[in-house]
Amino acid sequence: MTSIGTTTSLTEEAPVSFDTLADFRSWVHSADQAERGRFTYINGGFEIDLSPERISGHNEIKSELYATLGLIVRQRQLGKVFPDGALLVNDDANLGCEPDMMFCSWETLRSRRVTFRAWKRDDDGDVELFGSPDLVVEVISNSSWRKDTVELRQAYFTAGIREYWLIDGRSDDITFEVLVRGESEFIPVPPSANGFRKPSTFGASFRLSAKPTRLAACSVGYCISQKFNRKISLPHWSSST
After folding, report:
1. 217 confidence band (pLDDT: 50, 70, 90)
2. Contact 63, 43 (CB under 8 A)
3. What is the CATH code for 54-228?
4. pLDDT for res 230
5. For position 101, what pLDDT does the model report?
6. How far is CA 112 from the centre of its chain?
7. Strand partners for 166
8. CA separation for the pair 192, 212 (Å, rounded)
9. For strand 204-212 and strand 186-188, is the pairing parallel, antiparallel, or unpaired?
């Protein structure tokens, strides 16, 4: 697998480098970590992305996704949705990163495919999502295109992630890929005639599109439409049980 480099989008060189995933985790959780940005460690390669996040075509898409998927997951008691900022760690892929969004089903949490971990001290609280979530979502930016489409795509497969959603909203023609596990790599789910894609999670099909808005500040918003394929009922589970 090709490792990401040590450069960032706003600086020539990353201020530190790491030999192991444990070294990266130690730095992320240390008081010495004064940098701000999105941190990614993949199989020996390290990146800090300091680029500001675009409102249109990136942040708005994440907001719409979280609102829609969060509501579905709560209403149907499917599991937990995690927005960006949660640190994903996976030993099999030698990976530490902060995805735009993750989803873990109750079954995944019950079976401990994913656990919430402190770094070293119990009083740190849960600071790592450790293992293999059911779904990871990345929204592509100019600075993350290769990382999201090549390095992370390979790493998430190695990590045992069951499904990867890859979204590119940098132009009016939004690209929405639902990628599911094949024998050796992720394979795309083809859209239906009306543009819906049917992932293996949620029991629903989804379509992401731009929509006009009446707000004077912007001319376009984003809408993720869904239609349910079947009725499903899963038992509720919480980390306190």
Report:
1. very low
2. no
3. 3.90.1570.10
4. 41
5. 96
6. 19
7. 138, 177
8. 23
9. unpaired
Q: How far apart are CA 164 and CA 161, in angstroms?
A: 7
Specify the residue for token string 């709560």: 74
Which tens digit of pLDDT belongs to each residue from 31-61?
565 556 788 999 988 888 888 888 888 888 8
Note whether 197 and 167 are within 8 A (CB).
no
* Residue 228: both structure tokens together: 């349910």
Say whether 22 sits in a helix, a strand or coil: helix
For the chain, percent helix, then strand, then coil, each to nearest 5?
20, 30, 50
Helix (H) or strand (E) holding 48: strand 45-49
Burial of 190 (0-12, 13-18, 19+ CB in 10 A): exposed
Burial class (CB in 10 A: 0-12, 13-18, 19+), 20: exposed
Ranges of each domain in the chain: 54-228
Distance, in Å, from the CA atom of 26 to the CA atom of 12, rounded to the nearest integer, reads 24
Helices marked H in the chain — which ranges? 21-28, 60-75, 106-110, 145-146, 152-158
Beta strand spans in 65-203 (E): 79-83, 88-90, 95-97, 101-105, 114-117, 128-131, 135-139, 163-168, 175-181, 186-188
Least confident of 36-40, 118-122, 126-130, 188-192: 118-122
**Neighbouring residues of 237: CB distance < 8 A, sequence distance ≥ 6:** 106, 109, 110
Contact 43, 95 (CB under 8 A): yes
